Each structure stands twice: as structure tokens, then as C-alpha cells.
Automatic annotation (TrEMBL):
PROSITE patterns: GNAT. PANTHER family: N-ACETYLTRANSFERASE, UPF0039 PROTEIN C11D3.02C. Residues 1-145 form the N-acetyltransferase domain. GO terms for molecular function: acyltransferase activity, transferring groups other than amino-acyl groups. It comes from the Bacteria. CDD domains: NAT_SF. It holds the Pfam family Acetyltransf_1. Keywords: Acyltransferase, Transferase. This is N-acetyltransferase. Gene3D superfamilies: 3.40.630.30. SUPFAM superfamilies: Acyl-CoA N-acyltransferases (Nat). InterPro entries: Acyl_CoA_acyltransferase, GNAT_dom.
Length: 163
């Protein structure tokens, strides 16, 4: 992912937001905010004919140094290419790059209605740790004011953090 991919990354993020099943966030942030909230490494884009059609990135889960090897996954694919394996390609690359960067635990919170995302994560070794019931309330769209559950999933590396 390069700075010149910013507009496409934010557009695809907004497309995910518009489904109301991707995030509690109501609107894609400015690039500077997005850039600051994600780790500087482990940022990947998928392209078709030089057009960005998906992206994956990691965010830290804590400022405490003991959690430096734990990161939260964000993965978004343009609706125009869903079902074409883009998500799998991104996740495979993200897992590889995260392990090369010393990350031993990946986690995500996924709306249970987002069955495609849950299936993708499970395909790559994530397990559902639990369901976080009514963790937060939507503040936009048709579900404005609705309390939402999220499935909490995690993947422990089989090659990093074993000592």
C-alpha cells in the first residue's frame, strides 16, 4: 500500500461502511487519521488492471509493549469483486507479512451478520473466541440506535511467539 492508494482505500472502506455490517464507524476518516491508526507495516492492496479493489491492514490493540505482537485485522474488498478470491489473497498475504513482522496474534471483531468475513477468517485459522453481546450501538443508517453483537475471533501464529 502506497500513499497514492489512499483515495481507493478510503473509497473501499466507505463501501464497507455503507453495508452497515462492517464497522461501527459511520464515515471513512481522512487519510491522515487512517494512516495514524494503522501499523506502518502490514498494509496490503489488491489490484486488478492497476485498480485497487481491496485492502488489508493491521492496528495495534494496546500501547503496552507486552502487546506489540498482537494486532487487529481490517480487511475490505470492493463489492464489485466479491466472490473472486480477493479476500483470500489479501488474508494470505497479511498473515505472512504479520508473522514476518513478529506478530503472534491476530484478532478481529466481526458482526455475526457478516458471514463472508467470518468464513474468510475461519478459512485462515481464526477461531471464534466468543460473542460480545450488545457491545456498542450503531449511530448511523437504518440500524441507528441498534445495539450490535460482534463475534470476537483470533488466530495464534504457529511460527511466531512460541518461546
Amino acid at each position: 500500500m502506497q500513499t497514492e492508494d489512499a483515495d481507493a482505500v478510503l473509497r473501499i472502506y466507505q463501501e464497507g461502511i455503507d453495508t452497515e455490517n462492517a464497522t461501527f464507524t459511520a464515515k471513512a476518516s481522512e487519510w491522515s487519521d487512517w494512516n495514524q491508526s494503522h501499523l506502518p507495516n502490514c498494509r496490503i492492496v489488491a489490484t486488478i488492471d492497476s485498480i485497487v479493489v481491496g485492502w488489508a491492514a493491521l492496528s495495534g490493540v494496546s500501547s503496552r509493549c507486552v502487546y506489540d505482537g498482537v494486532a487487529e485485522v481490517s480487511i475490505y474488498v470492493s463489492p464489485s469483486v466479491l466472490g473472486k478470491g480477493i479476500g483470500s489473497m489479501l488474508m494470505k498475504a497479511l498473515v505472512k507479512e504479520s508473522e514476518e513482522s513478529g506478530i503472534w496474534m491476530l484478532q478481529a471483531s466481526i458482526f455475526p451478520e457478516n458471514e463472508g468475513s467470518i468464513a474468510l477468517h475461519r478459512k485462515f485459522g481464526f477461531r471464534i473466541v466468543g460473542m460480545r453481546k450488545k457491545i456498542a450501538r450503531m449511530n448511523y443508517g437504518k440500524m441507528n440506535g441498534t445495539w450490535r453483537d460482534v463475534a470476537f475471533v483470533e488466530r495464534r501464529s504457529s511460527i511466531v511467539g512460541l518461546d
